[in-house]
Amino acid sequence: MPTRDSLQLTGGMLQMGARVLLVPGFIIAIAIMLKGYADIGDGFSAGVIAALVVIVQGLAFGAEELERIAVARLAPLLGFIGLGLAYALAFVPVLFGYPILTHFPRMNEHAEHFGPLEFITPVLFDVAVFLVVYGFCVGAMMAVSRAEVRHQRLIRRARQRAGSRGGDAV
Amino acid sequence: MTLVFSLAIAALFAVGAFLMLRRDLIRLIAGMIMIGNAANLFIMASALRRGRAAVLPGNGDEMADPLVQALVLTAIVISFATAAMALVIVYRVYTSHYSMDLTELSAAEEEQSERDEPESGDLVEQDIEEDIEEMPDDAKVGVLA
Amino acid sequence: MIALPLGILMFGALGSALLDGTRRRNGWLAAVILLAAIIATTWLGWDVYHHGTREMAVGGWDQGVGITLRVDMVGIIFAVLCQVVLLGSLIYEVVSDVGARIFPSLVLFLAVGLTGLTFTGDAFNFYVFFEISMMASYILVNYGETPRQFRAAFVFITVNLLGSVLFLIGIAGIYHTTGFLDMVRIREQMPLVQENPAILTATIIFVAFCVKLGLFPFHFWLPTVYTGTRPAVAAMLSGALANIGTYGLIRFGIDIFPRELEAASMVLIVLGSASIVYGGVQALSRHAPAEVLAYSAIGQVGYIMIALAFAGPAGLAAVILYSVLNSINKAVLFLSISLRGWVATTALAIGAFSVAGIPPVGGFFGKFVMFDLAVQNESLVLVALIFIGSLLSIVYMFQMYRRRIATPELEEDVIDGWGVQAVSLVLALSLVGIGIYPEPMLNLIQVAAESVPKGFTP
Fold first, then answer.
1. Calpha distance C76→C48 (Å, rounded)
2. What torsion do the CA atoms of A6, A8, A9, A11 make, to the nearest 10 degrees?
3. Among C149, A154, C136, C147, which Cα is nearest to B94's?
4. Which DSSP category does C69 fall into?
5. Which residues of chain C have pLDDT under 50?
6. Neighbours of A88 (CB within 10 A)
7. Domain membership of residue A133 as a residue range
8. How far apart are CA C362 and CA C368, in angstroms?
9. How far is Cα of residue B128 from the mean position of the Cα atoms in its chain?
10. Residues contacting residue A153 through CB under 8 Å, at least 6 positions apart
């Protein structure tokens, strides 16, 4: 089995590509989410795109880089916020006597809009979906990479302790 | 069209079933994903109408059945979350056994039960769990969308 | 009002995911949330009992456009049953120290899935809630984190994923043949569907639910998983999660596919009988208590299947009664099996009596109803079979109990904390309660059975 060190993906090309893609990737993701009401697109695909952009950073620069990027570090929290927002949108209408998940303004009512962006609660719901998907993808990825880093450290320590004898302990 | 759909579904299902019978855990998961996708394709095939995309249909155009697309999106989210979770579990199995082969794993399990040594506990991190638990919600929100 | 139990559980699950579940205080908080949900569900049940089925179309859409939440008596009974079993297992685990941060939250998510599933009137929504609960249980099976549990988890995930995929395919089939996902409309449309597609779809869905239930030819995953996991998780799986199978068979079998169910009644009887005999004989030959219980679970499912085969009003009532009793039995047994001390032993004895169907305990009524059903249908073979099944269960339960009693000193003679034992005893006492004063329960189940529209009477 090849050792982990030989599987380094941190090539110069990849690093440059990853950096260049970071901001445009997010912009595209947000655009896809917001234009979903007049065109094709939604929070789920936007969340996946944003998560992919961030995960590529991790692949290119190593797991430590992810810890430096704030949007990546906070991903699980964002996921929880998104979930809370979605639940709130589902259940707050119930408190006012509407059925669960009722969106406002209601159908055929006038909605304020700014360009293609309409100010309606379904947009908020899509933001919630975006956050959940993003938080889940990045969060799960980071948890695994953290676990892997810790795991490698444990192995290295075990090897040091075992000296030359433990070189192939695995 | 129906023939193409059924051939594709059959092929995916066959490949998936074949992979699921392997002893390698990664292949097993690949098989699960394949079978999941066969089901997704089946949902698409069960559409009542075919035609242009349901967003902004042109005048007089035949519109595709939008409901199956909503269903399939949900099903994709769910199978995505399940696959991610299964992979995390495989990862944990790997860190505690250094093997992804089911035969070796059951041998290790027998050894384990003989020695009854809780050695794997410390390598298993809490963080993974923290994140896995988001999955059900993920699937859930996907559906409400 | 329909949304209340779901809302409590969803926000509760989310909130307790943020807290450290290994702290006892947070564990109790989750238990309180679950209790609140039980109270809310019961309140809703009171309403449904007096005013009939409640409906709510999600998002304020018209009926038939939006997803419908629909609650009837059957749904309420199963929802409360699952929640009670989950609450028992959760308290059990909290009292004996939770080992993982997210355990309480996962239990609540499992409750969300199970409650939602019983509240929904939409076939695809059913699948979604079903997957939420499956997903939570996939992770719960890992709880404990020994190699055995990993393997059990893998078996569980693989088999149940296949089951879920089958179910999904079945739903796609229903949608394509009827053009609806709302259960009421599907029911109206189903008689117009041609015979072959309907039978195919019904078979796929039947297999999917039988995998969850662990009926005889689909049982192979069950012993590995039930013996591999922690007692509390095994109690949840067999006491709460397996109800998906029964509830699904009632909803989809009796409600949507009555014609196909009638055609398949012989198959159900054969499979059910095979399950009873196989489970009983295997349980007799096993030594590890958890294994005996796992095989016993396979056997008990057989009765449900046979009752389903006679799914007239009497049959449906028998199905519900039997699965309620069976769930509580299994929860009591799995929780008390690994405990030491006289309180837990009493609970174990009560549970064992209940499975065997000995009069003062609730399980007697389950067996009695089954006998009654068999006699009503004048089926001598069935009477004999149920008799044999009961005999087998008495013998293996006795054997297990004797083995437990005979070797308490061989293990360390530590008596487990009172709290844990008390939980198992309280659940067990509820069985005695049902046995002594069964009228309210039987009445409820009667009402529930009558609320399901009868597609046919055999």
1. 8
2. -100
3. C147
4. E
5. 410, 413, 456-458
6. 14
7. 4-168
8. 10
9. 18
10. none
Report the gap between the CA of A57 and the closest CA in chain B (Å). 20
* Residues in A 101-140 with any Cβ partner in B closer than 8 A: 101, 125-126, 128-129, 132-133, 135-136, 139-140
**SS (HEC) of chain A:** CCCHHHHCCCCHHHHHHHHHHHHHHHHHHHHHHHHHHCCCCCHHHHHHHHHHHHHHHHHHHCHHHHHHCHHHHCHHHHHHHHHHHHHHHHHHHHHCCCCCCCCCCCCCCCCCEECCEECCHHHHHHHHHHHHHHHHHHHHHHHHHHHHHHHHHHHHHHHHHHHHHHHHCC
From A19's Cα to the closest Cα of chain B, the distance in A is 26
Beta bridge partners of C182: C122
- Which chains lie within 8 Å of chain A at 3 or more CB pairs, if any? B, C
Per the structure, the count of domains in chain A is: 1
B80: left (phi over 0), alpha (psi -120 to 50) or beta: alpha
Phi and psi for C373 in degrees, rounded to 5?
A: -60, -45
Higher pLDDT, B63 or C394: C394
> Among C187, C189, C182, C174, which Cα is nearest to C63's?
C182
| Cα gap C338→C93, rounded to integer Å | 13
Q: C68-71 and A117-118: which strand pairing?
A: unpaired
Number of inter-chain CB pairs under 8 A, A vs B: 79
Sign of torsion over alpha carbons B7, B12, B14, B15:
positive
At residue B130, does pLDDT exceed 50? no
Count helices and strands (H / E) in chain C: 20, 2
Q: Which of B73, B77, B134 is facing A139, going by the closest CB pair?
A: B134
State which amino acid sits at residue B2. Answer: T
Residue type, A6: S
Contact predicate C52/C35, CB 8 Å: no
pLDDT recorded at residue A166:
47
Question: Is the CB of C146 less than 8 angstroms away from the CB of B48?
Answer: no
Q: Where are the domains of chain C?
A: 266-458
The answer to whether the Cβ–Cβ distance between B137 and C109 falls below 8 Å is: yes
Q: Where are the domains of chain B?
A: 2-144
- Cβ-defined contact of B53 to A129 (cutoff 8 Å): no
B124 band by pLDDT with thresholds 50, 70 and 90: very low
pLDDT in tens, A72-98: 888 889 999 999 999 998 888 888 878
d(CA A131, CA C109): 19
Main-chain phi, psi angles of A114, to 5 degrees: -130, 100
pLDDT at C157: 87
**SS3 of residue C143 by DSSP:** coil
Residues 213-272 on C with a CB inside 8 Å of B are none
Neighbouring C-beta atoms of residue A87, cutoff 10 Å: 21
